């Protein structure tokens, strides 16, 4: 440490020699080239030892010499030293890096020299040696009372820091209640006691004097004896008087703004001689150098005396409602009034007082009064007595008028009317009720308009809409929070709770109805007679509800106890704690006047609190007698920081908790207070020591780049670890500054006393109980390893205008990329960046980062190669370019090398919207792809433009053959011949089939269609009419011929025979169904069966004309013949009805397997109805024997299926 630095830390004390016990040592640091002691230390302080000279000393490079001058009385007597002083010096020098030497000095002083290497070791050696031989001193300092708070510091922080830095103990007397209030000069002296050895006492005294020197220069003064009415005259208009005074004295002067109203207005004690009262709440403040501030104070006091002699008072009686138009928002400012008249205004606080007081010099008073009257009377006024509208109101018209006024005030309806019509309202009350309203406006027409609305509002609120109930004001807060919302929602009644300015007003109930309170419109029409009964019922219900709640509450009582003022702060905290922990939600209210403490609330709560409080006060009085009890015990010095806490926070908490004074000094703890509380505090502190003895500390090497993620947002992650394992985790400060609230993690340990060692940037310290510290360390290292594994990074630079396409709609594209790769991708906001290029950050595992980077770079390459082309294509071709379901568009993009993704295609080719003008198609993408797409579009359009259209006349009955099943034939022709075909809608009667395409293709397609529909020679097969429906199988055979053979069937114009009667809905037993039961066996056996032998009254044959190619016609004819042979054998039809629709599925089986098996075994055709819920029959067609066999197989299948179902309990 340099000579200058040492002089600043331990400057020599000034002043003449004093009695031995209070002689302060002189400490001088010398280094190579430093001045002699007599010339003063490097700090510039003069050496106070008269006639002191220093012997020449040898300056050795790299060596530092310091000395301390001590009076012999500052050294312990020989009988208190363990060994002779020379032996103590020898022993000390053998162990110390610095060498100590004691030599005589002038004035019977001893010079203690320490010589050693530069740095702290020489200083510390000198301190340690003086600690061995120095006598214990008690030094008393006289300091000004104003310096007391600066020496103690906030929460005792400053005095603790001095004690810890010097090793001395400092006692500052407590306030005796006579100190000047804050902001006032206080030169009274108090005594501060310092205890320690000579070096410690000197150091502590120097530090205290330094604080006094720093604070002595600037003082704040408060001038309290000045009337507030003088403030404008002292300050002047726009502070014109203050500015010269501030410049003259070099101080800051703050004069409060003058208030127009006063609770203690000036009074005339004799004509022209008013008496002014001193201000009670706002005062003139001075701040600056002490002597200058006092001079400025004297100047202001002179001015005050001048004003007392100059100012007069003129009183003028003005209607109270007009006072608002003189000074304030609705009048002019006090500054303006003073500037124009040279006077000020004092308005009364009491609404019933009409006296306005004008204060100013005698020569200006008349002008002030004239201006006051002019301002007050500049508004037109009209009165409206709303009580006259309901003179017969129960309880009195004035009382009802007061209720209406209170309601409209709270609803701010009068404020709304005032703003609407530029009218000002004054709505005074008296003890009997509301007085007539006063309406003020500069335009009388506005008053008339406002009166019309007031009449409507009063009409809408007759006495029937309102009710009152008397409730103890103690419960007003409870009613506002708990009762009011419930009553409004349940009964549609709004509650007006009296304000503090309405001490005698009852709780007001106003019926508003069931509408939403937020959207409720104030009633303006008289309620109808039928509505009045509903209003009164709801009001009565609400009133009964409130009274019921109040009946459930205890009566309110008040009690007063006398408690010495010194116990009030602790009693206040005690009562708050007791009520916080109590189960009763209703809290008593506590106030005090002097030594009296008033408790008001529910009787039981008051009684309980009074008893508790008296018990507490008695205990406090007993404790007060034991305040001198002292308990001292050992505490490990290395854990002192933990005991003290950051800024003394922990030790303050302990003092508050145990109500004892706690001092920590050099491995010892001293407790002072009541014995029981001191012993409880000792037990707690010893427990803390045992806990800390088990403490372990781990220093982890963690790269600073991982600190932020380990700490977490606002310290969340590290705080969880600290809480879970009960440890403290410290990060280097320079790495946590950028994270809000994260420093709490690094500052969890105390900063008091000796600071933590400086952490390296890559060090993280874990400290706490060994088990918790070990587990926290392991979890931190696991987290570090995870971060290392997932902290590979990469950067992709892209153009800012590409960001929207990378992010996608609502971030969908970016989120998809994150999901696909698993990487964290941070895309900067386009709005925040001013550059054309932006960096996208990728983080994750090595594989995740590589995958995401590859995709982004591919998209970047595509974007950078992206071009936009616009081509004009007549709108009539747009549909053809898109194709059915976008098929053509997809083919165009994919063939060009583009993506088949729907969103990508939508960005690649954009057609104009249907309601937009223009034919421009926008194509965007890589240049190669765009060029190919444009070429394809142009080719398609060119082809379309060269197309021809021809219409072919085709009979309507042939249209089906062109279209085919599901349009299959039509699509096949279009694909084969590269044409488009438009077939008229069914039922239109049109026969024209339009063919569009290239001329040659149209001709080929036309020839093909003509060939298809050309009337082919047909071959006729005669089918017995009785078997027509059996063979056609409900038309299935015709569809089979058309699909499989391309053969059509018609009947040469003959009518098809009717279907046999009773085919589908035939039921046995007269059509009744068997009963459904819960018996599984009954369900399986129940059925209805009817066997009908096929007979038909139809005679003769019906022609089936087969048209198609010869070979296919032959195939169809053979199929018909086979069906005829089969039909001749099928001479019976069975109709089987099952009662439970759920059992039909057992007949069909999975995928039709069961019914196909039954068909094969029985040789019968079996038709199971589609909708079994209507009781339709299963139709079985075959030989009589086959039909019976099929029935048995069906019933067996049903029984098997029923038995295989899980049984129902």
UniProtKB/TrEMBL annotation:
Positions of region (Disordered): 28-59, 738-764
Ranges of residues in domain K Homology: 135-213, 217-305, 310-377, 627-690, 694-785, 790-861, 865-942, 946-1014, 1015-1125, 1130-1199
Q: Where are the transmembrane segments?
A: none
Q: Any idea which UniProt keywords this protein has? A: Repeat, RNA-binding
According to the UniProt entry, which residue ranges have a biased composition of type Low complexity?
31-46
Its Gene Ontology cellular component terms are: cytoplasm
What the entry lists under InterPro entries is as follows: KH_dom, KH_dom_type_1, KH_dom_type_1_sf, SCP160-like_KH
What name appears for this protein in its UniProt entry? K Homology domain-containing protein
């Amino acid at each position: 440490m340099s000579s200058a630095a040492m002089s600043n830390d331990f400057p020599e004390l000034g002043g003449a020699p004093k009695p031995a016990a209070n002689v302060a040592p002189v400490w001088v640091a010398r280094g190579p080239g430093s001045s002699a002691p007599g010339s003063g230390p490097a700090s510039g302080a003069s050496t106070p030892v008269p006639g002191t000279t220093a012997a020449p000393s040898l300056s050795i490079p790299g060596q530092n010499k310091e000395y301390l001058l001590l009076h012999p009385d500052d050294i312990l007597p020989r009988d208190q030293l363990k060994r002779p002083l020379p032996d103590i010096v020898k022993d000390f020098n053998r162990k110390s890096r610095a060498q100590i030497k004691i030599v005589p000095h002038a004035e019977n002083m001893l010079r203690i020299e320490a010589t050693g290497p530069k740095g702290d070791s020489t200083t510390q050696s000198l301190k340690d040696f003086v600690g061995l031989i120095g006598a214990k001193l008690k030094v008393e300092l006289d300091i000004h009372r104003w310096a007391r708070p600066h020496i103690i510091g906030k929460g005792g922080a400053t005095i603790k820091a001095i004690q810890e830095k010097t090793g001395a103990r400092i006692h500052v007397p407590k306030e005796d209640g006579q100190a000047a209030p804050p902001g006032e000069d206080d030169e009274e002296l108090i005594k501060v006691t310092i205890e320690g050895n000579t070096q410690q006492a000197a150091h502590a005294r120097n530090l205290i004097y330094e604080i006094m020197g720093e604070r002595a220069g600037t003082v704040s003064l408060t001038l309290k004896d000045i009337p507030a009415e003088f403030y404008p005259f002292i300050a002047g208009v726009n502070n014109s008087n203050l500015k010269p005074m501030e410049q003259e004295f070099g101080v800051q002067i703050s004069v409060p703004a003058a208030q127009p109203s006063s609770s203690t207005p000036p009074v005339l004690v004799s004509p022209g001689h008013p008496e002014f009262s001193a201000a009670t709440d706002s005062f003139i403040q001075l701040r600056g150098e002490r002597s200058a501030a006092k001079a400025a104070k004297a100047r202001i006091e002179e001015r005050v005396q001048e004003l007392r002699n100059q100012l007069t008072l003129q009183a003028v009686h003005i209607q109270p409602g007009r006072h608002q138009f003189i000074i304030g928002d609705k009048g002019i400012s006090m500054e303006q009034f003073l500037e124009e008249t040279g006077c000020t205004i004092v308005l009364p606080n009491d609404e019933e007082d009409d006296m306005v007081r004008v204060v100013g010099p005698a020569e200006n008073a008349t002008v002030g009064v004239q201006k006051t009257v002019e301002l007050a009377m500049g508004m037109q006024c009209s009165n409206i007595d709303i009580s006259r509208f309901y003179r017969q109101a129960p309880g009195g018209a004035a009382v009802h008028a007061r209720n209406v006024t209170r309601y409209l005030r709270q609803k701010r309806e009068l404020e709304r009317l005032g703003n609407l019509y530029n009218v000002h309202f004054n709505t005074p009350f008296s003890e009997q009720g509301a007085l007539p309203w006063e309406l003020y406006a500069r335009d009388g027409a506005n008053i008339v308009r406002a009166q019309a609305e007031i009449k409507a509002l009063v009409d809408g609120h007759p006495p029937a809409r309102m009710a009152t109930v008397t409730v103890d004001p103690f419960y007003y807060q409870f009613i506002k929070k708990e009762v009011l919302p419930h009553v409004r929602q349940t009964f549609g009644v709004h509650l007006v709770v009296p304000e503090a300015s309405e001490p005698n007003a009852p709780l007001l109930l106003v019926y508003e109805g069931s509408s939403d309170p937020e959207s409720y419109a104030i009633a303006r029409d008289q309620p109808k007679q039928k509505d009045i009964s509903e209003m009164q019922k709801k009001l009565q219900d609400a009133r009964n509800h409130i009274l019921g709640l109040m009946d459930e509450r205890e009566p309110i009582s008040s009690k007063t106890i006398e408690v010495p003022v010194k116990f009030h702060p602790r009693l206040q905290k005690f009562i708050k704690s007791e009520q916080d922990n109590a189960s009763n939600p209703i809290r008593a209210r506590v106030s005090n006047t002097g030594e009296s403490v008033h408790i008001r609330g529910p009787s039981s709560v008051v009684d309980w609190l009074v008893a508790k409080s008296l018990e507490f006060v008695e205990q406090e009085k007993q404790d007060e007698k034991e305040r001198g009890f002292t308990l001292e015990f050992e505490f490990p010095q290395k854990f002192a920081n933990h005991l003290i806490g950051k800024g003394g926070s922990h030790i303050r908490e302990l003092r508050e908790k145990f109500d004892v004074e706690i001092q920590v000094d050099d491995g010892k703890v001293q407790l002072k207070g009541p014995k029981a509380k001191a012993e409880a505090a000792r037990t707690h502190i010893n427990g803390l020591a045992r806990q800390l003895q088990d403490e372990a500390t781990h220093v982890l090497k963690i790269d600073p780049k991982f600190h932020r993620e380990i700490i977490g947002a606002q310290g969340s992650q590290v705080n969880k670890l600290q809480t879970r394992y009960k440890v403290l985790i410290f990060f280097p400060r320079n790495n946590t500054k950028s994270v809000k609230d994260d420093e709490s993690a690094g500052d969890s340990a105390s900063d008091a006393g000796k600071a933590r060692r400086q952490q390296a940037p890559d060090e993280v310290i874990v400290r706490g109980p060994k088990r918790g510290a070990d587990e926290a360390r392991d979890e931190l290292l696991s987290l570090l390893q995870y971060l290392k594994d997932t902290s590979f990074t990469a950067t992709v630079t892209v153009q800012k205008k590409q960001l929207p396409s990378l992010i996608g709609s609502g971030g969908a594209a970016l989120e998809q990329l994150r999901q696909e790769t698993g990487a964290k991708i941070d895309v900067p906001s386009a709005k925040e960046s001013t550059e054309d290029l932006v960096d996208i950050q990728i983080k994750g595992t090595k594989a995740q980062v590589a995958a995401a980077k590859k995709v982004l770079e591919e998209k970047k390459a595509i974007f950078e190669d992206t071009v936009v082309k616009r081509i004009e294509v007549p709108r009539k071709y747009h549909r053809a370019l898109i194709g059915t379901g976008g098929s053509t568009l997809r083919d165009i993009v994919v063939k060009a090398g583009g993506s088949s993704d729907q969103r990508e295609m939508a960005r690649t080719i954009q057609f104009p919207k249907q309601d937009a003008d223009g034919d421009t198609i926008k194509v965007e993408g890589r240049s190669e792809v765009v060029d190919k797409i444009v070429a394809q579009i142009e080719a398609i359009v060119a082809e379309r433009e060269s197309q021809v259209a021809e219409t072919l006349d085709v009979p309507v009955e042939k249209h089906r053959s062109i279209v085919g099943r599901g349009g299959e034939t039509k699509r096949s022709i279009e694909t084969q011949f590269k044409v488009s075909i438009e077939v008229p809608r069914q039922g239109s009667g049109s026969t024209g089939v339009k063919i569009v395409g290239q001329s040659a293709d149209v001709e080929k397609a036309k020839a093909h269609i003509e060939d298809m529909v050309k009337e082919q020679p047909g071959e006729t097969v005669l089918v017995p009419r009785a078997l027509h429906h059996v063979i056609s199988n409900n038309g299935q055979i015709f569809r089979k011929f058309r699909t499989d053979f391309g053969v059509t069937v018609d009947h040469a114009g003959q009518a098809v025979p009717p279907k046999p009667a009773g085919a589908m809905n035939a039921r046995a037993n007269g059509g009744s169904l068997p009963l459904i039961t819960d018996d599984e066996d009954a369900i399986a056996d129940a059925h209805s069966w009817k066997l009908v032998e096929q007979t038909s009254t139809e005679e003769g044959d019906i022609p089936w004309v087969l048209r198609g190619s010869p070979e296919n016609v032959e195939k169809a004819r053979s199929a018909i013949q086979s069906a005829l042979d089969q039909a001749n054998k099928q001479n019976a039809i069975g109709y089987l009805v099952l009662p439970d629709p759920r059992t039909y599925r057992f007949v069909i089986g999975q995928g039709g397997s069961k019914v196909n098996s039954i068909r094969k075994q029985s040789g019968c055709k079996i038709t199971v109805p589609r909708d079994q819920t209507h009781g339709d029959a299963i139709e079985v067609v075959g030989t009589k024997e086959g039909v019976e066999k099929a029935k048995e197989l069906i019933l067996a299948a049903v029984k098997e299926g029923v038995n295989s179902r899980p049984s129902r309990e």
